[in-house]
Amino acid sequence: MDDLSFEAPTGEITVLVGPSGCGKTTSLRMINRMIDASEGRILLDGVPVQGIDPPTLRRGIGYVIQQAGLFPHRKIVDNIATVPYLLGWDRKKARARAMELLERVGLDPALAGRYPFQLSGGQQQRVGVARALAADPPVLLMDEPFSAVDPIVRTSLQDELLRLQSELNKTIVFVTHDIDEAIKLGDRVAVLRVGGRLAQLADPKTLLAEPADDFVREFLGHDRGIRRLQFVSTEGLRLRTDLTVPEGSDGGSPEPWLLVVDGDGRPVGWRSAVRPGELEPYGTFVRGRDSMRAALDAALLSPSGCSVAVDEQGKVVGVATRDALDRALSEAVHG
Amino acid sequence: MGDGPPSLWEWFGRNWDTGRADSIRTLLTDHVTMSFVPVVLALVVALPLGLACARWRWLYQPTSGLMNIVYALPSLPVFMLMISVTGLSQTTVIVPLAFYGVAVLIPAVVDGLDSVPDHVRQSAVAVGFTPLRRLLQVELPIAAPVVLAGLRVVAVSSISLVSVGALIGQGGLGGLFTRAYQNPFMPPVIVGIVLIVALALVADGLLVLAQRLLTPWVRARKEAAS
Amino acid sequence: MSWLTAFLGWLGEFFGDGANWTGSDGIPARLLEHLEFSALALALAVLVAVPLGLAIGHTGRGGVLVVVAANLARALPTLGLLVMFVLLLGASSIWPVIIPLVLLAVPPILVNTYEGIKGVDPELRDAAYGMGLRGGQVLGRVLVPVALPLILLGCRLSAIQVVATTTVAAYTGLGGLGRYVIDGFATKDYASVVGGSVLIVLFALFVQVVFALVQRLTVSPGVSRRLTIR
Question: What's the whole-model pTM score?
Answer without folding.
Answer: 0.85
